């Protein structure tokens, strides 16, 4: 449907031109993110925009260092190779003129209430935490952000891989907000190539169930 074309314009972009992005565009893209739905309307998100190329490069270096450190805790040779090799995907943001860090804030669920009461068996209480609406709020906001970026002609890429360096990244940029943690990030810029395609999607019949 033509009305839905704005959705299909979104692709994961990992190579960018050096062209700067106007601040007003960044603000509009983040504003679109804040219009995502959130449980209890808590809007438990915070966006940190990094525009300094040297700082973005240093964040990539932080991810590389943490990747090397964590590799020492892996014993299986194949898993060591896979994890160490993944760092090149976890640092693709370093080619972008802008990096947006997305933080998730506190969100109490029924699971928290049940655990606090301490009556229901812990395993059952934790089962009610599986939907994790707090992080779903962040996912919804980031999808809005990606769609807005694509609609304005920019490329972005949903990234959670570098989150193992979340504490170090937050310390480096000096961001601290009570109860918030780095949940995801995305580079933002003009795609370096105009020939970008989405990977194949599973057939709708495989992922759709309609109950009459």
From TrEMBL:
EC number: 1.6.99.3
Record keywords: Flavoprotein, FMN, Oxidoreductase
Gene Ontology molecular function: any one: oxidoreductase activity
Keyword flag Transmembrane helix: no
SUPFAM superfamilies: FMN-dependent nitroreductase-like
Pfam name, any one: Nitroreductase
Domain Nitroreductase: 7-189
PANTHER family for this protein: IODOTYROSINE DEIODINASE 1, NADPH NITROREDUCTASE
Name of this chain's protein: NADH dehydrogenase
Organism field: Methylomusa anaerophila
